Amino acid sequence: MKVHIKGRPPGLLMNQLTPEKLSKKKTGPKKKEYDVDKDARSAAYIAEIDGKEQLYIEAIALYSMILGTAMRYKEQGKRSSISYLLAGTMRVEPHMIPLGHCDWEIALHIVRVPPKTGARVVRARALVPEWEAFPEIILNKNVLPSDISETINTILIDGGTRTGLLDWRPSKKGPYGTFEVLGYEILE
Prior knowledge:
The structure is a single chain. The protein is of the alpha+beta class. It has helices spanning 19-23, 36-43, 59-70, 83-87, 148-162; strands at residues 2-7, 12-14, 46-49, 52-58, 90-93, 96-98, 105-113, 119-128, 132-133, 136-139, 179-185. The protein contains five helices and eleven strands. The chain is globular, with a radius of gyration of 19 Å. 27% of the residues are buried. The mean pLDDT is 87.
C-alpha cells in the first residue's frame, strides 16, 4: 500500500536523539556561546538518500503512530483493538522516508532539563514547515481481514490529526507533526 501524506501547518518539529548525544558527558559549568544553528542541525533527521542530502522521517515513527492510533479501533465482533493484530503483520518502508528536500527553519523553545534541577533552557529544533512523503505500508494479507487497507487509511487520517509524528506532536499536547492523507494506492 503506497501512501501520500502531506504536512499541515505549523509543520514537523524534529528532535533526533542519537547514541552520541546520550553518551556526551557533561563536565562542570562551562559557559560558552550557544550555537543555535549547530543545535538545530543536530536535531534534524538529515541523510544522503538517492545521492542527495534530504530530510527524512524514520519508518518507526510512522509505524508507532499507526499502532498507537489503532488502539482506538476494534476488530469486527471482538473487544480487542486491531493494534495487536497490526503489530506483527505490518511494516513501513523505506527505513528512512525521504521528504524530498533539505529545507528547514530554526524553532526556539524553552524546555525543562531534568532530572537534577528542572532548569529552563532554550533549545533549537529543526522545523520543517512544508513537507510530504510517500511511505509504503506492507501488510501480511494472509492474516489480516480483506478490508484492512481501508481501515489503515482511516487510521492514517485519524492519526495525522490526533496523534501526529515526531517531536511535540498532538499526542504529546503539542501543535506539530500533523498531516493529511492525500491518497493511497493498494499494491499487489
